[in-house]
Amino acid sequence: MTDKPKSNLFVRILRGIWRGLDSVRKVTHLFLMLFVLGVFLGTLSGSAPSLPRSAVLSIAPTGTLVEELAGTAFDRAVAEVLESGTPQTLMRDVVDALEYASTDERIKGVHLDLSAFGGGSIAKLAVVAEAIREFRESGKPVIASADYYSQGSYYLAAHADEVYMHPDGIVFLQGYGLYRSYFSEAIEKLKLDWNVFRVGTYKSFIEPYTRMDMSDESREATGNVIRQLWDLYTLDVETARGLDDGTLRAMVDNYATVASDFEGNLAAAAVDYGLIDELKNRKAIRDRLIEIAGPDDDVEDTFSSVSPSGYLQERRLLETSDEERNVAIVVAAGEILDGTQPPGQIGGDSTASLLRQALRDESVKAVVLRVDSPGGSAFASEVISNAVVALREAGKPVIASMSGVAASGGYWISAEADQIFAAPSTITGSIGILGMFPTYQRTAAYLGVNVDGVGSTPWAGELRPDREMSDHAKQVFQQVINHGYDEFLSHVAGGRDMSVEAVDEVAQGRIWSGVDALNYGLVDQLGDLDDAIAAAAEAAGLEEGSYGSYYVEEPLSPTEQMIVDFLGTAESLGMDPGVFVSEPRLLERLALRFEAMLDPVLRFNDPRGVYAHCFCAID
Predict the structure, then answer these.
(1) Which of 2, 30, 515 is nearest to 231 (CA)?
(2) Residue 362 and residue 301 share a domain
(3) 206-233: b or e for each residue (b if 16 or more CB lie within 10 Å)?
(4) Are residues 169 and 265 in contact, defined by beta-carbon separation less than 8 angstroms?
(5) Cβ of 179: how many Cβ atoms within 10 Å?
(6) Does 542 reside within a domain?
């Protein structure tokens, strides 16, 4: 047998390299398959995180307190895993965590870390403050701390047992105000014709485009609400802290004098005025919390703690139940737009779809519509209102529960409910209609551009933004707005069992506080979400303890859930999910910023260009 000739040295080296690379490929594939298998098994396990036997519930809200997190369920879940997105804190998560913790022997106290909290409306803050008060009845301490307290964060801190602040911190309370930019001179300099149509003496939505200052009517109505909000804030805080009446006003109204008296040390001033119990740095606060719950087993020099997310995951898994009779809660938070919109905005179609889900669910005996909206599209508001009427006609009572603001379109979608609940600080009313149609033919002419042509009717080419709006078009627009206002009045009158004349007296686009709205018959009772749920159950003939409640929300699809679980499990295995995303380039960041600037104008999409909107976000 003839020996097989040997290949040359170069070929043997190449074969060796190839075998090595092939072995690396096989090993890599094996490890990748094992990793994917581990992630898959991890997603199937679905077990709740293990919690320590003794811990502090550490609540560190970020951003703004909201009724509903912005974005779809999938977008929010991915953003949470990737630690991106707009900082927000869901009010009901904080309230639920406090409620569970009050009866949980493992939880020895609560730490409110408020350094990154941006605040929220008094109506929402008051709900959390009440949950803090109820937790304190368990005898467990609530410790509040922050490097710096804003007005919203201090409101929550004031309801704690102990309030601490960093020695270099400040408590900055500034009261409430509404300040807006006015553009009429800029619009004229740009040679724009901002054609405006409105009904309502107090309808101030349009004023920035037609004036350079706030009208007397708007100043009167807004000033009335602002004074009431500040009165509520100071009363709540002074009561919670046991301060003399007028303490906050004495400090806030004389900040310059206070700063001078304490040689610029506003932290010491806050202690002297009774706003802060003691100045402590972060280590001193950790030591205080170690006294309450003991040290952390894994991290040196800190206290044993659990976060609301992990804690709620465990408790909600343990306490899920399928009640045969339920009160469904549908959240309508954000501006009202036509069509389907993600959470954080109210879509005429999407919100109506949630209401129809409650209509089809045989276990649902009543519905609470939780409203936190300044309004928006009149058409979309009517679509949602029709869905409310359909529920009532099917024998399912609907209770509207107003949060921080339920004005204009926000009031429109509430008016047909069987009962309306509002917080004392709710901003509501603003019953009025407006429309806008800007044109820029003068700008084009200045640049040497003209539009001309011929049409078969006076309306051919009429509604072009590069042509002047004709008198007959303006007349039609105003008539449509007038009709919309009459519809709004009739809608409210029918829902509230009032005469159109009585509604008109408190309408005209004027905003009211919840207290004033009760006095004028625009709401039925003052109360929070729990009060509204109890009223809905009573209206449906459900006895206390015989029903459940749940939020009607769009769930994740199976594919979306699998992706979210994959990212979450990958993170728990030590892999950074951030590798799946890249930071936007400079040009992309500029484009996103420009898009955000234009969004307030571009997002309005009412098919008729008719809006029931209130610019009444009072900070």
Answers:
(1) 515
(2) no
(3) bbbbeeeebeebbeebbeebbebbbebb
(4) no
(5) 7
(6) yes
Reported as a pLDDT band with limits 50, 70 and 90, residue 613 is confident
Q: Compute how many other C-beta atoms are within 10 angstroms of the C-beta atom of residue 259.
A: 14
The secondary structure of residue 149, as a DSSP letter, is B
Beta-carbon neighbour count of residue 248 at 10 Å? Answer: 25
Identity of residue 263:
E
Strand-pairing partners, residue 347, are: 337
pLDDT digits (tens, 9 = 90+) for 219-229: 999 999 999 99
Catalytic positions, please?
Answer: 203, 408
Are 538 and 524 contained in the same domain? yes
Query: Which candidate, 398, 410, 399, 406, places its Cα nearest to that of 425?
Result: 406
Name the E strands within 352-500.
Answer: 364-373, 375-377, 398-407, 419-422, 427-429, 433-439
pLDDT value, residue 281: 96
Q: Which residue has the higher pLDDT, 359 or 554?
A: 359
Question: What mean pLDDT do residues 298-311 have?
Answer: 91
Lookup result for tokens 């009772």: 525
Q: 310 and 423: one domain?
A: no
User: How far, in Å, are 40, 44, 499 from residue 569 at the CA level?
Assistant: 8, 10, 60
Residue 171: pLDDT above 80?
yes
The three-class DSSP label of residue 495 is helix
- Distance CA(509)–CA(434), nearest Å, equals 10
For residues 265 and 276, give the distance between their C-alpha atoms in angstroms, rounded to a whole number.
13
* C-alpha–C-alpha distance, residues 374 and 71, integer Å: 18
| Of 24-28, 318-322, 489-493, minimum mean pLDDT range | 24-28
The neighbour count for residue 517, using CB atoms within 10 Å, is: 26
pLDDT at 30: 54
Task: Give the list of residues 6+ apart from residue 569 with CB closer than 8 angstroms, or none.
Answer: 38, 39, 42, 43
Q: Which of 285, 316, 347 is the last residue of a domain?
A: 316
Residue 163: its pLDDT value, please?
A: 98
Q: Which residues pair with 589 in a beta bridge?
A: none
Total domains, the chain: 2
